[in-house]
Amino acid sequence: MSKQRGGGSLTALPVIETQGGRRSAYIPTNVISITDGQIFLETDLFYAARRPAINVGISVSRVAAARRSRR
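Now predict its structure.
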């Protein structure tokens, strides 16, 4: 956002439901390209009263520190 309009940032959180909870289901490439990872929510964890129902074993983050090139 422009400094003239007060600055700020924009956050997008696309939500995709796979068929039958299959993790290998097709996820559109354009959605993958705009995200920095995936958070997998599990129905079983939700019904076991675990909130948020995030499966940390299969959730992925692609956020990394910037590397400086040495020349």
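Residues 10 and 42 are 27 Å apart (CA to CA).
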